[in-house]
Design brief:
The structure holds two protein chains of two kinds. By secondary structure, chain A is α/β, with parallel strands linked by helices. Chain A has one domain: Rossmann fold (3-Layer(aba) Sandwich), CATH 3.40.50.970. Chain A has twelve helices and nine strands. The radius of gyration of chain A is 20 Å and the shape is globular. Chain A starts with a helix and ends with a helix. Chain B is of the alpha/beta class. Chain B has two domains: 168 residues, Thiamin diphosphate (ThDP)-binding fold, Pyr/PP domains (Rossmann fold, 3-Layer(aba) Sandwich), CATH 3.40.50.970; 131 residues, 3-Layer(aba) Sandwich (Rossmann fold), CATH 3.40.50. In chain B, strand 11, helix 10 and strand 12 form a beta-alpha-beta unit. Classes of the chains: A alpha/beta, B alpha/beta. Chains A and B meet through strand 2, helix 5, helix 6 and helix 12 of A and helix 3, helix 4 and helix 5 of B.
Chain lengths: 323, 325
């Protein structure tokens, strides 16, 4: 890892962490409503994968704020969407779980567990047909890996040798259900070994995530078919803001906190003399400013008008007929 | 031209004119389509554009949505409406909502074709008509083709619309003969007046249009009345303008559908007429619909479970008499 790369990882992970902490605060204040799924603890996965997979199309689940920001979405527009404002990325109609930006090839925020996987597979089909080799990156959790949509997608992507990376964030819990209660094994890459290359990595290490996604990207770009990565990771917060957390112990949380992706990257960078100490202080300040800006932008942004209720439902031609 | 040939022609022309049009589904390629709608397309356009899928409806529609996002214009064929229930999540939670929940950033140019209805003793899991589900979903367009001419024009239109269209066909119509005017300008969103009349408006769609025609022939002379028959063509959006104009003229409305009566699409049409045209009516709205049972296998029971030309005729005759016609 070179110094520039480490700096970028640190900046984006810190930005993601602080964004989420502030979103939590704003939720408590009542500025954000609905379901809010925080990525705190899993930043290495979001940042490492997005920095490796720069082109192509990304299909995500609903824990996607940090993925969106790492992909290049403006934190101001993301925060405004969480606030339900018209200047939000989805005009306040999507909210936390639905952040879309086709210009960035980001089809984020599908809130039906596993539901985006067949869609990602279809997009990979289209890309392959068009002769594009950049392919598709589909990220999902351990919960989704038990769904029918998952198994159908693995089968089809493999049968048709589609350029798609399946990235499984195994944080062990589907809301409050531990993976060992509902799956015959907890190392989930075993589910797909007969279909495609499948590996298990440490998802708390941003460099490892980055390197493995780079390997996967090269594999799919060479037309070899799909590739599967399972990253072991952990969310420090509940599934969403309404999670009681009764299903896991404080000890378990502390074990994973000791592997914190941001702190560990910093420690490593300092001990290997990759980055000077002042960089971290400057970056932390820069991040704080950006978060302040995002929140202030979201606060000052306008509410959608009631007249916009029926907008964005159909294309122009169909809209004319329907109204 | 047969109904299935008209559909085939629409797909063939769309694929010829636009390389981004693809068709996918169970047995659509090498086999030629369960109802031969995609016959010949595999040889013409190849395996990349005429895609044989596994028996996985959720993926057929889900993959098609992804193809649409990826720049293609997919036509997903579901073997029957009954199997489309396995794809409901993709149709309702994804295709119908993506444009809206992305604030208008995503377009899903997708056509999902599926035949439904009672055919010939296919029993409970192959005979349903679930159009009421699709017609109730914001974000979907629902076309219902009762004849080859509409089938050709509406399908071509559906393929090139930038929104998801549920395209309903009927299993007993595939081999129906009818003229197709290829040059006609057909607006697939508009209902059509199949036959004009001044005394009763009969509203129907899909195969029941044909049954209504037969029923009308049976009763008009005897009762000395004239029936106006409306083919809805588009269930969502619903062409209330045509319905209103007709009902204001005849002051009587009958709705005929093959689906179960409870919660069937006819209930929506009836409610709209009652809400909007109550003071124009000279008689309560009559709904003629399928019975509230799964479709049975036995032919006698099967026919007892749905409207037939004879039943439509006798029910309308009785209702007309009771209401002073």
């Amino acid at each position: 890892m070179n110094s520039a790369r480490v700096k970028e990882f640190y900046y984006l992970m810190k930005l993601g962490r602080e964004f989420e902490l502030r979103a939590k605060e704003e939720y408590m204040k009542g500025n954000i409503a609905g379901f809010l799924h925080l990525d705190i603890g899993q930043e290495a996965v979001s940042v490492g994968s997005m920095k490796a997979f720069m082109k192509g199309d990304v299909f995500t689940h609903y824990r996607e704020h940090v993925l969106a920001i790492a992909r290049g979405m403006d934190p101001k527009a993301v925060m405004a969407e969480l606030f339900g404002k018209r200047e939000g990325v989805s005009k306040g109609k999507g909210g936390s779980m639905h952040l879309f930006e086709p210009k960035l090839g980001f089809y984020g925020g599908d809130a039906i567990v596993g539901g985006h996987l067949p869609i990602a597979v279809g997009c990979a089909y289209a890309r392959k047909m068009e002769g594009e080799n950049a392919g598709v990156f589909a990220i999902f959790g351990d919960g989704a890996s038990n769904s029918g949509a998952f198994f159908e997608s693995i089968n089809i992507a493999s049968a048709w040798k589609l350029p798609i990376i399946f990235f499984l964030e195994n944080n062990y819990y589907a809301i409050g259900t531990h993976i060992s209660w509902v799956s015959p094994f907890t190392e989930l890459y075993n589910k797909v070994k007969n279909y495609m290359p499948a590996v298990r990595i440490n998802g708390m290490d941003v460099c490892e995530v980055y390197e493995e996604v780079m390997r996967a990207k090269n594999y799919i770009e060479n037309g070899l078919g799909p590739y599967f990565i399972e990253a072991e990771c952990y969310r420090y917060e509940g599934h969403s803001m309404s999670d009681s957390g009764k299903y896991r112990s404080q000890e378990e949380i502390e074990i994973f906190k000791s592997k914190d992706p941001i702190e560990n990257l910093k420690k490593r960078a300092l001990s290997e003399n990759l980055v000077e100490k002042s960089f971290f202080e400057e970056t932390d300040r820069k991040v704080q400013n950006e978060i302040e800006e995002a929140v202030s932008f979201a606060q000052n942004a306008g509410e959608p008008e009631i007249s916009e209720l029926y907008e964005d439902l159909f294309c122009k031609e169909c809209s004319n007929v329907v109204s | 031209m047969l109904y299935r040939e008209a559909l085939n022609r629409a797909i063939d022309e769309a694929m010829r004119d636009d390389k981004s049009v693809v068709i996918l589904g169970e047995d659509v390629g090498r086999y030629g389509g369960s109802y031969r709608v995609s016959e010949g397309l595999f040889a013409k356009y190849g395996a990349k554009r005429v895609i044989d899928t596994p028996i996985a409806e959720l993926s057929i529609v889900g993959n098609a949505i992804g193809m649409a996002i990826g720049g293609l214009r997919p036509i997903a064929e579901i073997m029957t409406v009954n199997f489309s229930l396995l794809a409901l999540d993709q149709i309702i939670n994804h295709a119908a909502k993506f444009r809206y929940m992305s604030g208008g950033k995503l377009a899903i140019p997708l056509t999902v074709r599926m035949p439904g209805g009672v055919s010939k003793q296919l029993a409970a899991q192959h005979s349903e008509s679930y159009e009421t589900i699709y017609a109730s979903i914001p974000g979907l367009i629902v076309f219902a083709a009762s004849n080859p001419n509409y089938a050709y024009h509406a399908l071509k239109k559906a393929i090139f619309l930038n929104d998801p269209v549920i395209f309903l066909e009927h299993e007993l119509l595939y081999n129906q003969e009818g003229e197709v005017d290829f040059k006609a300008q057909i607006d697939p969103f508009k209902a059509s007046i199949v036959k004009e009349g001044k005394d009763i408006t009969i509203i129907s769609y899909l195969k029941m249009v044909k049954d209504c025609k037969e029923a009308i022939e049976k009763i008009e002379k005897d009762l000395n009345i004239e029936c106006e028959l409306i083919d809805l063509n588009s269930l969502r959006p619903l062409d209330m303008e045509t319905i209103t104009k007709s009902v204001k003229k005849t002051k009587r409305a009958v709705i005929v559908e093959e689906d179960h009566k409870t919660g069937g699409f006819g209930a929506e049409v009836s409610a709209r007429i009652s809400e909007e045209l109550f003071y124009d009516l000279d008689a309560p709205v009559l709904r003629i619909a399928g019975e509230d049972v799964p479709i049975p296998y036995n032919r006698k029971l099967e026919l007892a479970s749905i409207p037939t030309p004879d039943k439509i005729a006798s029910k309308i005759a009785l209702w007309a008499k009771e209401n002073g016609l």
